[in-house]
Write a structure and sequence with these properties.
Blueprint: E1 11-17, H1 23-34, E2 38-40, E3 49-56, H2 63-66, E4 71-78, E5 81-83, E6 92-95, H3 101-109, E7 113-118, E8 126-127, E9 130-131, H4 132-137, E10 146-160, E11 163-170, H5 176-182, E12 186-195, E13 198-199, H6 211-217, H7 222-229
């Protein structure tokens, strides 16, 4: 019997997203090439770079196995200014002397472990039934809800004249922009380097990782794999929590619309895109330059 259209190839595709296109544009590009239903296990802002875990064909129904995996990021933060969006695109809200020395160390220590921070205003979460970024674009100020998350690694890689480069490993649903804001700054660059056991160095948009191999890497037993295939629910696997964070919407927000219309967000994780559907819509952190944009 012929394989149903849109269900092959089945597996996981690792993509190193460049700066510029939305996560949905990347999904649509892969879908056009493979002719298979395609989804993702966590979005990135258009201006962010790094690893996207895509699910192809029958693997889209296994999204809950991957969406809750921990994420790893490399970010550069300008500690001298807070912006409305937590990145260079937003209006500057305030300028100040950057944290340094013992004050910076104390602030960083307070952001390790279990934390609770406001969700960025320019995010895809819904406030009263409306996407927060849409309210933000309309100039409507709202009190953004707090989100609990976990920061397992928060290491300083470099510090230079008010700019801080951090290596972070965080639970799914964590907004790195919120962490930057808590330090009195904003993200100048943001790169996702890992999702659970999957590393950006493995990215190859032309390679489909077999489902069995991908599930084994996140610690699922054969029995659990069979249960998932029968629709028995999700599993966080190694390096992640079960399912999607609360307030996330569809496991991995259908939220961030393309381009500047909105944000998928480092904290907004699966929106499968079927063949024929219309999607919404490796550069490491750069150094400072006049008028630079987030890579």
């Amino acid at each position: 019997m012929a394989i149903p259209k849109g269900l092959e190839p089945t597996g996981i595709i690792l993509v190193d997203k460049p700066a510029g296109p939305s996560s949905f544009a990347i999904v649509a590009e892969v879908r056009r090439r493979t002719k298979a239903k395609t989804g993702h296990a966590g979005t990135l802002d258009p201006l962010a770079t790094g690893l996207l875990v895509l699910l192809s064909g029958r693997a889209t129904r296994l999204a809950s196995c991957f969406v809750g995996l921990d994420k790893r990021y490399l970010t550069e933060i300008d500690l001298s200014a807070r912006t409305a969006t937590g990145d260079p695109e937003g209006e500057v809200l305030e300028r100040h002397e950057p944290l340094k020395g013992p004050a910076l160390e104390a602030a960083l220590e307070g952001l390790r472990g279990d934390i609770e921070l406001p969700i960025p205003a320019a995010s895809a979460v819904k406030i009263g039934g409306e996407r927060a970024y849409r309210l933000h674009r309309q100039g409507i100020a709202v009190d953004m809800p707090l989100r609990r998350s976990r920061v397992d690694v928060l290491d300083v890689i470099a510090e230079d004249e008010g700019f801080l480069t951090l290596d972070l490993q965080v639970s799914s649903g964590t907004y790195v922009r919120s962490i930057a804001d808590a330090l009195g700054g904003h993200c100048v660059s943001l790169r996702r380097t890992a999702v659970g056991p999957f590393r950006v160095e493995e990215a190859d948009p032309g390679r489909v990782v077999p489902v069995e191999a991908a599930l084994a890497r996140i610690g699922l037993t054969p029995e659990q794999v069979e249960a998932v295939r029968r629709g028995g629910g999700g599993h966080g696997g190694q390096g992640g929590r079960q399912g999607a964070p609360s307030g996330q919407g569809v496991p991995s927000g259908q939220g961030g619309q393309s381009g500047h219309a909105g944000r998928g967000g480092e904290g907004d994780p699966v929106a499968p895109v079927s063949p024929g559907g219309t999607p919404p819509g490796g550069t490491p952190p750069g150094r400072r330059s006049s008028g630079r944009a987030l890579p």
